[in-house]
Amino acid sequence: MDYSRETSTAKNVDRAQRLIRSVEFNGLCQTFVDLVTYGRAGKFPAPVHAWSGYTEQGIAHSGIEGMEPGDLVFFAADDSNRNLAHVGVYVGADQYVSVTDRCVEQCSLADWQERTGQQLLGYVRPVTDK
After folding, report:
1. 49 three-class SS
2. What is the separation, in whole angstroms, between the first and last Cα of the chain?
3. What is the pLDDT of residue 130?
4. Are the beta carbons of 9 and 71 closer than 8 angstroms?
5. What confidence tens digit (pLDDT) does each residue in 5-23 have?
6. CATH number, position 19
7. Structure confidence at residue 108 (pLDDT)
8. Number of structural domains, the chain?
């Protein structure tokens, strides 16, 4: 997969926020990010593999400095996420949108870390292989 081409981050924020409270993703954050970023499912790997790929290509950013709305935010793999990591869409002001075991929710990065114990890894600018 070519991770070098950026997508429209404004569209990602809009798509993510329109899906808040949706229950169609069955707890699968990568399916949510796939739909928001690519408009279809089946392209985005499990977050642990996506983060690894982005890191190998040098486009993953540790921490939150420089993060912009529309970026994909990643959390570390642990027992709470079946060691698959977690991903969502940053929407600004310390808020991000992602799938929980109940539905699509928007919450602060700090609240998510406190609620789940998952550690923030960092972010990437979403990309496409079109």
Report:
1. helix
2. 10
3. 44
4. yes
5. 345 677 888 889 989 988 8
6. 3.90.1720.10
7. 96
8. 1
Domain enclosing residue 108, as ranges = 5-128
- In tens, the pLDDT along 53-104 reads 999 999 999 999 999 999 999 999 877 767 778 999 999 999 999 998 889 9
Kind and range of the H or E run holding 74:
strand 72-75
Taking Cα atoms as reference points, which of 62, 57, 35 lies closest to residue 123?
Answer: 62
Strands 72-75 and 5-6: unpaired
Question: Against a cut of 0.90, is the pTM above it?
Answer: no
CA-CA distances (angstroms) from residue 106 to 55, 88, 89, 99? Answer: 26, 9, 9, 9
What is the distance between the alpha carbons of residues 122 and 69, in angstroms, rounded to a whole number? 13
Q: For residue 57, give the 3-state DSSP assignment.
A: coil
Q: Please give the single-letter amino acid code of residue 120.
A: L
User: Cα–Cα distance between 26 and 104 in angstroms, integer?
Assistant: 10
Q: Any idea which residue has 């114990």 for tokens? A: 117
Phi-psi region of 55 (alpha: psi -120 to 50; beta: other; left: phi over 0): alpha
In order of 9, 30, 64, 72, 106, the CA distances from 94 in angstroms are: 16, 20, 9, 13, 10
